[in-house]
Description:
This protein has 436 residues and is an alpha/beta fold. It has 18 helices and 11 strands. Helices cover 40% and strands 14% of the residues. A 6-stranded mixed β-sheet has the order 1-3-2-4-11-5, with helices on both faces. A 5-stranded mixed β-sheet has the order 7-8-9-6-10. Helix 17 runs antiparallel to helix 18 (414-432). The two termini are 38 Å apart.
Amino acid sequence: MSANHKKFTKYAAAMLCLFILAACGSQKPRDSEGDSAAGNPNIADQPAELTIYDSSGNKLEWIMDNYGSKLKEKFPKYTITIIPQENSRSLENLIASGGNADIITSSTGSIVFDMQMQSDISDLIAKYKYDLSKLEPTTVEIQKKLANGGVYGLPAWTTTGVLFYNKDIFDRFGVSYPKDGMTWDELYEIAKKTTRKDSDVQYRGLSMAFEHIMMLNQFGAAHIDFTTNKSLFTADNFKQAFENLTRFYQIPGNGMPGNKFFFVNEQDPFYKNKTIAMFLTLHGAGRTYKDMVNWDTVSLPVFKEKPDIGSQSYPNFFFMSKTSRNRDAAFQVLTYLTSNEFQEFVVRNGYIPILKDQSLSQQIGADIPEYKGKNIKAALPKTFAQPTIKTKYQSIANAETSAALNAVMAGTDVNTALREAGERVDKKIAEQSGGK
Length: 436
């Protein structure tokens, strides 16, 4: 048996374990918006086979709950196979084994570009008269930058950075709760007030998902130049964003354990040990915390000179693959994901809509029990910050951003820490790209 045949046999066996959205049942009426967005409703009435590769790392059960079941319901004539990513080489193995992917999900698109599977859908947008202007502008801007003026995919939902806080700690210390619209300087003062030792327990005022908050920074500072693939760590706006966050770790008693950044050491004490008063992270974290801690949220703090600029949007895109064997049918799926019907569904499940008309945002988290009575709408900023492009080397940049933070906490000055971290980013990118 040849090596290729063995690969294909292994892949075929694995596919038996995958959930297939089979074409079944009577067709339900299509909503008028879905028809107009698609331009030709007959496309959805014709049988088609589609494969979606989901790179989120989530289990199939999560995928089905978040969009798979809705696609089955909306497209009963389609047979849609969803393949969850199991490891970094899953997509590569799928293609090498003779498999196919019509649609690939990704927040950054890095997996799509790594495999050179991007495909401009501008022709389909024109063919079906799809209106890009209905989408939140920064999501379109990201795609335009990625595709050099074209469009590789459409967003399905987005997330942002917010501030979670533990009400019990604030009540214990008699400190007023944080508020929507407060500045970073105001947050800094609150962090100092809630960093204290009480009954031999050290409480930290603020911890954060440092890498995510840096990625979604309000200065629109990118880690890597999208054109040159060179580090931007020494740019003025990157330094401003970095210093704004690192100062919180320099509050006496609020430092990272061992002066090293580890995400679990930043998050777990917030909702497990309950020794951290506030935690900056992505807004969906409440689904993890549930009722383990008496939490609520407020919007990401703002800068005094930019009072309306909040977090960057961090959309989840559905990219059209160049290997798609049925681009028209795949496009129907992409356009449905941006329809009012689907957007209401994801919003009620706790996500932020990707439509310019944000009226649906009033329903954020309506179907999530643990969100009842919480200020979940704080996740939606007045204005999204200028979006940055996350290149396929973002994970390298994130790791070196944390390394720069560690260096500063060990006594290195900020300029040196960022310069050295940027040099390491450039070296690693050069090694990974073969010097290209």
